[in-house]
Amino acid sequence: MSFRLEKDPLGEREVPAEALYGIQTLRAVENFPISGLRPLPAFVDAVIWIKRAAADTHRHTGRLEARLAEAIIAAADEVLAGRHRDQFVVDVYQAGAGTSHNMNCNEVLANRANEILGGTRGGYAPVHPNDHVNMAQSTNDVIPTAIRLAALATLPTVLAALRGLADTLRAKGREFDPILKAGRTHLQDATPIRLGQEFAAWGRTVQRHHDKLVEAARWLRAMPIGGTAVGTGLNAEVAYPGLMVERLRALTGLDVEVGEDRVQLMQSMGDVATFSGAVRAYALDLNRIANDIRLLASGPRTGLAQIRLPAVQPGSSIMPGKVNPSIAEMVNQVCFQVLGLDTTVALAAEAGQLELNVMMPVIAHNLLFALTILANATRQFDRACVAGIEADEGQCAHWLERSPALVTALAPMIGYAEAARLAKEALASGLTVKELVGRKGLLQGGERDQTLDLRAMTELGVPGGSPLPGGG
After folding, report:
1. Are residue 111 and residue 257 in the same domain, yes or no?
2. Which of 110, 142, 193, 249 could make an S-S bridge to 129, C-beta 3.0–4.6 Å?
């Protein structure tokens, strides 16, 4: 490998000759050999959007010579088109605020811009990473702006996954609406419910989380760019924040706006923590839904076995024929990871001091990673599991007929205490509630059938339509 010699305020270092990054990136790579994790693509895109918008803004105001601005823009466009991605090499766990990643981006764009202008890598002339690519910027306003842009840009993929899952669950709700089953509370027999009602409710839960994420994301629209070092805007022109937001909006298609108080936006990661909390809330409910589906599919002979999941792979290396709820189990693991990622975001959001939160690199990675894996898990859960679920109507009827909780429909007529005694007797005798009522002659013919109408028990109303004892 051949090298070139570069200088920075700390001295000289040899940088690989073919690298688009420079000496400051090299120092960061040497200082932080921590995880092997590199910045997620959405975060790289977001920082490069900012650099491109800044070059265009400064070309517009005349602060940056047009040919230099155009070379930076061309270099940025190459990165945004997918080129040079192997040059963003700083570990996720790095120096505070994200200076290392910011300089990695500055150096890559400067070196590539100089090549476009006929220069060489490492010469930093005529384009300099700090003086030109980073003009009127600080890591301190670039990185919080990039976090917001990256989250907003990733969100549509997440929302599309949620809409897909919600639609599939609601469709299953309609398909399974005729199927009656025993409800369960405390994992014990409860009054009847329709299988379709369970699925439809899950669909509404996912849709509500979709709407909550949209609402939480509104807090991310305010851009701190233009705050420079501490939010006051030193070294940025008065028109710069507004011009930057105009260009970022045009470049990304995102509905972003000029931050009302850039000091506040750079001090606080509260908006990001709020959004991450909404992601966490969805993960909690998605995890619960996956668990419920696993429970309903348990069996096939010794569990509830009220639904059948698509078989996607053999379930055991030792038990032939065993099929596990593999997709739902994957969802569980993703949700656990997302909860941990949100905890990291929360702790890091609290850890800022005075004018800056230096924990932004770990906030960026954890939030964007959470969005990425949650979107992928939701989409796969929808397509490879929920869409193919089948109901076992016979098994649902089997458990429902034997449920002692059916006596609940009799309570308005015979009272709670008598209904409780009837439930105990049904369990002890092995008879169904309907059989026991018939043997005891508590209700006759049509009255019994009307009161113990299982479908009617799944709707609002008093079974049999009889008035409550004592007018209660």
Report:
1. no
2. 110
Q: Which amino acid is at 135?
A: M
User: Cα separation of 186 and 190, whole Å?
Assistant: 9
**Contact criterion met (CB below 8 Å) for 304 and 298:** yes
Residues 6 or more apart whose Cβ sits within 8 Å of residue 152: 217, 220, 221, 252, 254, 256
- Whether 298 is a known active-site residue: answer no
- Under 8 Å between Cβ of 411 and 419: yes
Query: pLDDT tens digits, residue range 9-55?
Result: 999 999 999 999 999 999 999 999 999 999 999 999 999 999 999 99
Q: What is the dihedral of CA 344, 347, 353, 355, to 10 degrees?
A: 60
Question: C-alpha distances in angstroms, 187 versus 108, 296, 405?
Answer: 58, 11, 13
**Alpha-carbon torsion, ordered 76, 79, 85, 87, to 10 deg:** -30
Report the alpha-carbon angle 83-84-87, nearest 5: 160
Residues 235 and 253: beta-carbon distance below 8 Å: no
Rounded to an integer, what is the distance from CA 37 to the centroid of its chain?
Answer: 20
Q: Which domain holds residue 106?
A: 3-135
Residue type, 326: S
What tokens does 213 get? 């994420």
Q: Which amino acid is at 82?
A: G
In a shared domain, residues 343 and 430: no
Q: Which helix (H) or strand (E) holds 33?
A: none
Distance CA 205, CA 289 (A): 9
For residue 180, the domain's CATH number is 1.20.200.10
Which residue is catalytic, options 2, 298, 316, 317?
316
